[in-house]
Every structure is written in C-alpha cells, then in structure tokens.
Amino acid sequence: MTTYQPYRTAQYTRPAPEPPARDRFRPDIEGLRAVAVLLVVANHAGLGLVHGGYVGVDVFFVISGFLITLHLFKELQRTGRIGFGAFYGRRIVRLLPASTVVLVTTVAAAWTWMSPVQAKAVVLDALSAAAYGINIRLAVLGTDYLSAELEPSPLQHFWSLAVEEQFYFIWPLLLVVAATRRASRRSAAVALSVLGVVSFAVCVWQTGHSQPWAYFGIQARAWELAAGALIALAAERLRRLPGAAVATWAGVVAIVASAVLYDETTRFPGTAALLPVAGAALVIAGGCAQPRSGAVLLLGLRPMQAIGKLSYSWYLWHWPALMLAPHIAGDELGTWTRAAVAAGSLLPAWLSLRLVENRVRFNPVFKRRPRRGLGLGVTLTALACGASAIFLGLPNEVEGKGTAQDTASVISESQQLADARRQLLDLIATSAPLTAMPQNLTPPVTAATNDRPQASKGCLASLDETSIKPALAQGCDRHGDPQATTTLVLFGDSHTEQWFDAVDAVAKRRHWRLVVLTKSGCTPADAYTIKINARRAFTECATWREEAFAKIKELKPALVLLSTRTYGDPPVDKAGAATVPKAEADTAWAQALMRSAKRVADLGARPVIMQDTPDPRGTSVPDCVAAHPEAVQQCALKVATAVYATRRTANAEAAQAAGYTVIDPTDWFCTATVCPVIIGNALVYRDGSHVTTSYVKLLTPLLQAELVS
Prior knowledge:
- InterPro entries: Acyl_transf_3_dom (IPR002656), Acyltransferase_3 (IPR050879), SGNH (IPR043968).
- One of its GO terms (biological process) is lipopolysaccharide biosynthetic process.
- One of its GO terms (cellular component) is membrane.
- Keywords: Acyltransferase, Membrane, Transferase, Transmembrane, Transmembrane helix.
- The protein is mainly alpha-helical.
- It has three domains: 7-18 and 33-392, no CATH class; 399-441, no CATH class; 452-618 and 639-672 and 684-708, Rossmann fold, CATH 3.40.50.
- The protein has 31 helices and 13 strands.
- The N and C termini lie far apart (67 Å).
C-alpha cells in the first residue's frame, strides 16, 4: 500500500472497449455469494444437514479471485498499467469500514460479557485482525498444544479476510511482472498456474502434517483464489463454452454435496477442498456464457440476491453474535437458539450495509479519487488498533472476597508427612463448598495461563518435533543436581511436564540428576494416538518416543517417572483406525503403558507410573472462576467425570501385576465426590487441562515421599 504511482508496462495493447452493461453485474455470482454465506452460517449455527458448511469460505475465495482479477486485467488491457494506489484504495473502501465497526463492537462486547482472560485474548485477536494477520496468529495457536482447547475467538472468522488481502498484496505485482512486455493472458495464466500448483501441493502436504497452517495459511489457500483468477483470464473464451448451463448446475451440486458429505472429521482443506472449489469454478465459468437455463434460475431469485448483497456484512456479524451470545445469556445455547441468533445477526448486517458500507463505498469523494481510500485505511486501522489498546489499558482484575487460609503454610508447617497429608485433605474438604473467590488467590485468575514450569522452557517438544536433540541443546538433561551420579528421567507428555517443579525440587534435595524428556500431546505409552488438529495417527510422537527410549538406554537412570494424559478414545494404528472397541480402551491403554514401563525396567531402571491429574476436560478453570467469582463452586470438577476411575483401576492392576510403583495423586486434589478448583488460596488449574505450577510446588513433600518409597 506504500506505492502510490501506478506501474506502467513497457508496452500495452490498444484500449479495449468498455464491457457491456450485462458484464458489469453477474446475478449468478451474487446468488453464489448467498450460497456461500448460508452454508457458513448454517454450519456455525450447528444445523446438522451441513456439517461441512465451512466450504462456503472456499467458494468466497474463488469468487474473489475471479472478480478482482477480471477488474485488474481489464485495467491492464485498457491502460497498460495497474494503479496500485487506486486498487488498494477501492479494496479498503469496500472492506474496512464495516470490518472496523465489527472489530470495535466485538472488543467492547467481549470486555463487557466475557471473562477478563478471554477478553484480553479477543483484544489481541483484534489487533491481529486489524493488521490482516489473524490467520497467522490462529495457525500458531492451532499448532500450540497448550492452546488447542481454547474457546474459538469471536474474531476467528477474520482469518479469511486476512488470506484474501495477503493474496492481493502478491497477485497484482505478479500480474504486472507476468505481462511486462504486453498484456498477455497466456503469460499471466502461466504465472498463475504455477502459483496455484505450488500452493495446492503445499496445501495437500500441510493438511497431513500441520492442519492449522494448511487451514489458515495463505500458502495453502492461494490456489483457491488462483482458480477464480484463471477463470477471469479465460472469461472471453468462456462466453462460448458448450454445455455452460449443465456446468453451472453441476457446480451448485458439487458445492452442496461437499457441505453435506464433509464434517469435522474430514481432513480439510487438502484434496477435499477440490470439490467445493471446482463447484464454484464451474458456476462462474459456465455463467460467463450467461445460459438462460443455467443455475442463475436459482441463484438469481430475489431472496438469493438479497442475501448475496448482505453476504459480506452477515459473514462479519454472525460469528461474534454466536460466540458472545452464551456469555450474555450465561449458558450454552441449543441448536435452535443458535440458529435464531445467527438469523438475528442479519439485522446488524443490514444496518451495517445501509449505514456504513454503502455510504462510504458510494461516496463521491472515494468514487472520483479511489486513492483517497488509502488515507481512510490508515485512519480506520489506527482507530481499530487505538480502541483495542485502550481496552488493554483498562483494569483487568477480578476482585475476590475475604482471605483464605494459605495453602503453602498449611503444608510447610506440618512437621510430619502424615500431618501434611491430613492437613491437605482437611483443607480440600473445607474448600469444596467455597462460593467466593478469595482476595489472596494464588496465582490470580488473570495470570494463571502463564503459571507453568519456567525453568524447563524448551523441554516440552512441540507437536511437530520428532527429535529430543533440541531439548537436550536447551539443557533439559541438566536439571536437579547436574553433577550427581544418580539419574531420574521425567518422561511423557505435557501432563508429565506439569510436575517438573516438584520433581526438580525432589531431585535437588536427593542429589539426583534430572533429565526431562517430554513432548506435547505425546503419551509415553507404546501406542498411537490421533494428532491434535491433524486427524491422523501421531507418527511424530512415535518417532520422538523411540529416540527418547534410546536416550534412556544411554543414560542408565535409576528411576524413570512416566505419566500421561488420560485419553478417552482407544489407541489407533498407523492408518488412524481404532485398534479396539471403545469399551476396551481402558485395558488397551493400560497394556500400552505397561509395555513402555517394561522397556524401562529391561534397561535396568525403576519405572514409576504417575496416574493423571483430575481433568477439567477442556473447560478453562481460570475463565470459569473469573466469570463466577462469587459462585466458584460452579467450576468444581465432579469426581465421577474428572478422574477416569476405570482407567486408573486398569493401570493400577496392570502395574501391580508387573511389580511397578504407581502414584495416584487424586487425594491431593479431590474429596470422594468433588475436586475443588480452589484449595485454600491456591488456584489448582491454569487452563482446561493442566495444573498450575504454584499448586504443583506445594505438593513437593508428598511427591518426594512417594518417589523415595
């Protein structure tokens, strides 16, 4: 957007005549917009018939690629140049006014009705969206195991706008370069085809290896916009396309079929995206011939035209409405309520169109001098960022009531281990009926997310990592007493790594060397799981685990502490298919864990199995407490669903039969019926899965007794 002078090609063809009026508006494309937005909204509302309604975004990409390229190439043919300032100015005038209103409104609503922790995340999303970079932020969060279970952002849908704008920073420049000698459709098509083929190859590969980057990344989505752009370059020839009417109907069928046949288990985008993209391409390509019996008979209906005109505004407003409604209502929404909310968002969409989009878009100031839109863009971006910054600067604390008993003092002041256990059990029992969050809560709910092991940074391998070498380079084999001759290995996933501070403290007291071998989402059990956000067998885990076992063999440790998150689904094979029925999952997982424990024992080490901590099952505890500071008992975990009793029994019985030590920390968290999320003044969980490091440290003497025994 910094280039204000148009780029002139060395040579250009004679100016082409203005396109006839019938080419200036395509009712079939307006109706196709309606199809796209209806699919997206229906999917987000949870209507069962279109579990794959997310393909509507792919349809939007094809439409956008076609229309923008059609305009750019005609300008290049008429004038031999592309006025970048005018081009980007028109894009800004078309898109930014409405999106800025939605951004600022959503941030204000999030700050009003969401918890402080969630509201702050929304503000950061708004800053990313204002800079057209939220797709990158979402891809990074999607590959971060510790963020994988976060509630979707009310601004998540801005990712598709970011992808489009990133493409339009690249494509006009590429188009000019490709047509440097003359405005050649062939050279532009070749350049576009190369871009599309490379992007599609990246899309297929990344879908299998890192789905968040394939879903949100411009590198894996550019081919969809390129498909529309190629049709634009062939538009003149397509006016004589034989069978055009059939092509348009086939395209509609392909789009609807993908929406009906696909669901959340589909590995998307990848090759699956070919069906909706091809469908949209057929509708647009066939429509170039304007067949009277084509799909325009459906797409040109008044309701479809009306929805098509509202499609951009409705897309912007429906998702924040759906995400914020449960917080405003104070409860989850049923399917029909969600549908009503989605439909109700048509009102702000219509108001936005009439009062914001059209008034700015058709303002003579910008119609006569499109480049003035650049100044508008700077102003609106500054407005969105400034408003977000203001919210970030507002107080973001949750006030508690009263002062709770200091949990650290209760445990540390106990002279005998038995006293410490009894005092903790008593404190858990008295904390269970707690209603008000105490003022001296540690850590505060607004800081809980970062209350994780700090000294072991770099020791928790990412989802995509396959080697232990990066962790060893970070010094993960030199914790505890690095000079000691006795070695303890902490081996497992993030539910193992969460114990680091307590285990490290024990190692220092006992003069043990501590080696940390942990990986996100990677169980030490000898079995495959489904990789988070990839919908395939977690092969990276198996590769990493084998390297970890080789290191354990080299270390010759005295003790290996294994722990793992409790998986509800059975183990899978390399193809991602369950190896046993779900009813047999507990036994299968216990056997898999014992196979790994036996490998440890065969190496001469003592395996110690740590049962999993009670699981909030994805419900963020800090968010819940922040939302209910005077009724925190609503956030407590029920033992019946949080501790997976049958899995614990299976693990314990299998370990006892093999003669392995088992540590079950359930009593350190729960009564017989409930697991309070605040014990004394200690906040127990930092998210919807992991225990705060502050609480783990308090359990050091209890853990030491179990390890030493």
